[in-house]
């Protein structure tokens, strides 16, 4: 059977198909790059309608990455999907604290999720400027609280938890905050979506 | 803001909502567990219609895992999403060869994708009995070739590459093979879907 075996040609062809199928639905260049990469990752065109990017989000994220910002993710999966080699060019690193022993201990003691305890640990390091949450609404709620309390001022929040309990609400709450954000409205999202958004920004640089 | 903070309650409630919204669409118990976990991971009910499970797939996979089968994934993301602690109870391990130096070298020499070269490495270890492909159609095509040549006889193939070039075709080809398989028809799928399917089976044991 004949099939394309060259990765960059596969990706190029995929983006052509996506652009074609989006038809009249066009976007400003950088916003389009993010939305198309999310569709590329999910094969789900609904993301063209539910992905919301605050006006300052892309510029703020690019500036932060160029200045060596570190990225925090809520899951190992999201961390795993981010192009860390590309980030390292700017001296950036990705951290995920969910499996740390002190996080597990704190979560147990306080009766909260590990995702929440991990966010608390994340804001303890000033280098962490970009927060990427693809799974846990509780992490996004906790991050919102820290922002409102003035404990952290992220350069970008990618808030795309997927799910049926709290996900939509956690993202809706974010759209009212004065912080650069990218969210997916409603239930959809996930770790692959989170990583795709970060990579789309990395590939703009 | 009030929200559920106990992970197992969040999951329980999510599965209740999914079952309710599936309505008249019911499944045999174990098939339902897989489909619902995929929907839980994607918030996308289309998976109820496109997920195809061969009649022998679940029993074969359970038997293999209980016998200590190892799992191979095409991406680090899929590996990252699989519950490795649970698998280790049965002495199973997860491997992903995509970043191995010898794989990169072979791919370059032969002008094939790293995903294809990684599959070639994977079939070299007899302990690898479950093949999980969530991203690369080329890996699934290559695996199909090895099965047809009699070089490997998997106890389960989870074939759920996502995408616009080759993904649908790579999965369609699998439905004609005499091997236990779980696929998602069409373009949809991905690393999170792949991991959800494996975890659903692990949680049945």
From TrEMBL, chains A, B:
Pathway: Cofactor biosynthesis; adenosylcobalamin biosynthesis. GO terms for biological process: cobalamin biosynthetic process. Keywords: Cobalamin biosynthesis, Isomerase. Residues 10-204 form the Cobalamin biosynthesis precorrin-8X methylmutase CobH/CbiC domain. It comes from the Bacteria. GO terms for molecular function: precorrin-8X methylmutase activity. Belongs to the CobH/CbiC family. This is Precorrin-8X methylmutase. It comes from Crassaminicella thermophila.
């Amino acid at each position: 059977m004949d099939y394309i075996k060259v990765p960059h040609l596969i990706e190029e062809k995929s983006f052509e198909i996506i652009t074609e199928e989006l038809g009249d639905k066009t976007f400003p260049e950088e916003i389009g790059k993010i939305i198309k990469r999310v569709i590329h990752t999910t094969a789900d065109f609904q993301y063209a309608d539910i992905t919301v990017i605050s006006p300052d989000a892309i510029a703020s994220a690019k500036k932060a990455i160029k200045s060596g910002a570190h990225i925090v993710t809520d899951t190992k999966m999201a961390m795993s999907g981010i192009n860390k080699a590309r980030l390292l060019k700017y001296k950036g690193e990705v951290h995920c604290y969910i499996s740390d022993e002190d996080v597990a201990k704190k979560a147990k003691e306080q009766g909260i999720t590990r995702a929440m305890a991990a966010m608390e640990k994340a804001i303890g390091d000033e280098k962490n400027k970009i927060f990427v949450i693809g799974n846990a609404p509780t992490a996004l709620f906790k991050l919102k609280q820290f922002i409102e309390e003035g404990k952290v001022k992220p350069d970008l929040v990618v808030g795309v938890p997927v799910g049926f309990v709290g996900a939509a609400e956690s993202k809706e709450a974010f759209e009212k905050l004065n912080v650069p954000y990218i969210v997916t409205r409603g239930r959809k999202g996930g770790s692959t979506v989170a990583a795709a958004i970060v990579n789309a920004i990395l590939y703009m640089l």
